[in-house]
Structures are given as C-alpha cells and as structure tokens.
Specification:
single chain; mainly alpha
Length: 118
Amino acid sequence: MRNTICQADLRFLVLIVTIATPLVVPPEASATAQFSRQYNTSCNTCHTAFPKLPLLNRSQKIWNKKQRRVRITVEHTIAQLKTFKVLAERYRHSLQNYNQTFRFVANLVAFRMLQRQT
C-alpha cells in the first residue's frame, strides 16, 4: 500500500514538473535592436569601444585639482543650505520673498562657518 502511494505521488510530481517547466524556464533570448533590424547592420556599427583619453600633463592636473577643490566647497555649501527646510523642500511662499529668504539662510550658513573657524 505504501509503495503505491509513493508511486502515485511520484507520478503526480513528474506530471506537475512536466507541465510547469515551460512556464518557469524562459525561452532562449534572440533579441535584435530595432535599428540593426531596420538597416540590416550589426550592432557593432554603433556600439564600439570607447577611445582611450590621452594622459594629462602637469598643468592640466594642477588645474583639475583646483577645480575639484572649488567644486567640493560649492557642494558642501549647498548641502549646508539644504539643512534648512525652507530651501530643502519646494518653496511654497510668495516668489517675491524667495531672494530675501535665500539670502537670509545663506547669511546664517556663512555665520555658522565663521563661528567654526574661530
């Protein structure tokens, strides 16, 4: 009796796997780009390796370093301005007051920066 139940369970399991396999296993992908199909070309027509950039000389490296320092200062200042909710979110007040509000917050940030330096 026990063997017949196990055999029946095994047959049922095989049946379920046979039915479910095509649903679970995706078919082989054979996609081609629209442009490639339309103009009958290979994908390598457009998709090529990026060219290597030339090495930078000393003056270019120095200029990049200065540029990075300025960029970091600007990014940190913007981050400090956005700690104030009025500038971090959408401005919901009269646009006539926006410049005044922004300048007020900018002055508060500048004051904080001066306090940290001393």
